[in-house]
TrEMBL record:
GO terms for biological process: apoptotic process; glutathione catabolic process; nervous system development; Notch signaling pathway; response to unfolded protein. It comes from Neophocaena asiaeorientalis asiaeorientalis (Yangtze finless porpoise). Its main location: cytoplasm. This is Gamma-glutamylcyclotransferase. SUPFAM superfamilies: Gamma-glutamyl cyclotransferase-like. PANTHER family: CATION TRANSPORT PROTEIN CHAC-RELATED, GLUTATHIONE-SPECIFIC GAMMA-GLUTAMYLCYCLOTRANSFERASE 1. GO terms for molecular function: gamma-glutamylcyclotransferase activity; glutathione specific gamma-glutamylcyclotransferase activity.
Amino acid sequence: MKQESAAQNTPPPSQHPQDDCDPQDDCDPQALWIFGYGSLVWRPDFAYSDSRVGFVRGYSRRFWQGDTFHRGSDKMPGRVVTLLEDREGCTWGVAYQVQGEQVNEALKYLNVREAVLGSYDTKEVTFYPQDTPDQPLKALAYVATPQNPGYLGPVPEEAIATQILACRGFSGHNLEYLLRLADFMQLCGPQAQDEHLAAIVDAVGTMLPCFCPTEQALALV
């Protein structure tokens, strides 16, 4: 398996007054930022006021969480991502700002989607927008820890690819989840790197002789 800690090409850390706030923009108690790094990057499914592409430091994304609802079943759990604490890590995603009534509505929805059905806990992270990395924001992230019952943990990327190819849940095929995440990373540009994700995509490619580009593959799942 590839090295778990890899340095990334990201701007140097900087201080900003928002670092002293809760996960809110400008310390506004009616505003909250929510960081998505998995399916939330393409399907948030809640109302929001603003969204920004960017990254968080100190974490690496890993397909180590089992999913028995959205992308798998009780008999065949799918593989979805969580965040692994990694001093040299950097994870790209999307931060969504919710304001006023949107805050309670979003948290209520995500509690079911991420906590109840996914066994994720909440964690505060510092988010660096791609366009303004010198103006970080506090954000709320949903993280699956090793203590939750659905945690599957590390295995070789080839084994993860095999599991992904075999699983489907109520939200669709596990392969769709992998390819949409890979597509998002390509849109972020060359500075956005995820060796773990790329290794799984490569493994899928070797297992499917007629494996086609992302857009065409998505049409098949």
